[in-house]
Design goal:
By secondary structure, this protein is an alpha/beta fold. Helix content is about 30%, strand content about 25%. The chain contains 14 helices and 17 strands. The strands form 3 sheets. Strands 7, 8, 9, 11, 12, 15 and 17 form a 7-stranded antiparallel beta sheet that branches. Strands 1, 2, 3, 4, 5 and 6 form a 6-stranded parallel beta sheet that branches. A 4-stranded antiparallel beta sheet has the order 10-16-13-14, with no helix packed on it. Helix 1 runs parallel beside helix 12 and helix 5 packs across helix 6.
Length: about 400
Amino acid sequence: MKLLTQADDYGFTQGVTYGILDCIEKGVLKNTGLFVNMPSSVFAASKIKDHPEACFGIDFNLVAGKPVSNPEEVPHLVDENGNFIKSGIHMKNPLFQSEEGRKEQFPYEEVSREIRAQYNRFIELTGQKPGYLHPHSIMPETYIQAIRDLSKETGIPFSMDFQEELGFHSLADYPNPAGMESLKKKEFNPAKQLAKDSFKDFLAHGDDFLKEEYVFAGGHAGYVDAELLEQSTLSLERVRDAQMMLSEEFRKWIEDNNVELVRYTDLYEANVPDQKSDHKGETNMVKQEVRTDVEGLGGGKGTAHLYHILNKDQLGGIGRLYARVVLDPGVSVGWHKHSGETEPYYILSGEGTFIDNDGSRNTVHAGDICTIENNQFHSIENNSDKPLEFMALIYNLI
C-alpha cells in the first residue's frame, strides 16, 4: 500500500505554517499546498528549500485574504475593500444554488486570471514550479475547470483528477462509523472540532485501506493562532489533524504494515511516461514550458503571456530569454531598447504591427521574422481580434 499524506493551507497563518512544518520534520506528512496570497506566505515559502523530503504544491485560494491580481480585474471575487469574498457569504448567495448562478459568481476569465497569477507568484516566491495543483474550500465549476486547464498547460498534476486516475481510496469511500456522523462534512462547532480524533477515524477502515494500492490521508494540519480564528471557521480541528500526522501510533501502524509514504512527484514520475520532476534539480531532457503573465511588458498595454522555454541559466551566458509570447487583442509590448544584445521575433500565428527602430509600422503575419540591431528600439502590437503568437529570443551581440 502506498499512502499519500497531505495537509492543506500551508502559509495560511504563522500558526498553520509552524504546525505543518512540525508535521513534516517530526511526523509522517509528505505533501502540503502553499497559499501564496497571505501575509505568512513569504515566510512559508522561505522554508520550502529546507525540506526536500516533502512535496510542496499550491492551494488556489479564492476566499481568504487579498487577490494576487489587481482587485479591479477580478471584481466578482472581491468585496468593496478588495478582499476575497468569504466562502460562507458566497454559499448564502441564492446564485450559488445553481450552476448558472455559480458561473455568474465566479466568471471563468476572472477565476483563471487569479489562478494563473497565484501560480506565477508561487514560482516567484519559491524559484520552482509547484509539485501539484489543488483547490481550496468551495469548488464552483469554473474554478475546477481553470485548474484543469492550467494543469494541462503546465503538465503539473491536478490533485483531484490525478487521485481519481490512479484509483485512490480515502475515508470518503466508506460509510461513517457509528458515532462519527459528521466525519465527511465541515463542522462549524468548535467543541465538536476539538473532539475529532483523526487517527481513530482513519484506523476505523485501516484493514480496508491495507487491501488497496493507493490511499489518501488528508486534512488541515496546523496550530491555531488569532489570525486563523479571524480568517476561518475551520480552526480547532487543525490541531487534531496535526496530532494524527505527529502520532507515534500512526507511524508505528505505517511501519508495522509496510506502508510506503509517497509524494505527488514520486507518483507522477512513476505513472506518467517521460515525466521527471525538476524540483530536486535532476538532469532531464524533457521539460515543460513555464508560463508567466507580465503586465505592461516593456511599457506596453495589457498582460502579455510568456511561455519560457529556456531561462538565462539554461542559455549558458549567451542570452537571457527564449520564450513563446502570446498577446491577446489590444495587448502590446512597449517601445524598448536592446544594448549589447538583440531580440528577433518569429511570428507563429495571428496578425500584428511591428514598430521598427525608425518608427515605421509594419503588418506582420505567420512566418515573418522581425529583427533589430545593437542599440536599437522596437515594439509590437496586437490590433487584431485574435491572439498574436510569436517566438522571442534575446541573445548577446558583444
